[in-house]
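Run NIL domain-containing protein through structure prediction, thanks.
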Amino acid sequence: MKDPESLIHTEVKIRIPKARHPDPVISNLINRYGLKVNILGALLGANGQEDGWFDLAIEGRAATVHEALLDLVELEADLWFNTDADDGY
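Sure, done. The structure for NIL domain-containing protein is below.
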């Protein structure tokens, strides 16, 4: 991992389980962790019967991004990283 205080940019695809649809998952990344999050793509059914998919660009301090990604894993989200755009994870 890079210096915990260094700013990083990473792109990640996230699968949010349908049980987490009521939770403000993306909003929490911004509000709890102070991250800059750009939604590059999303697929989320209005009926909540399927998992949701987000393609995100995330910027922030390395340690904070790491903590936020661990939080997503605890929510049982699956993560796939775009290693071409990745400068930290």
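The chain has two helices and four strands.
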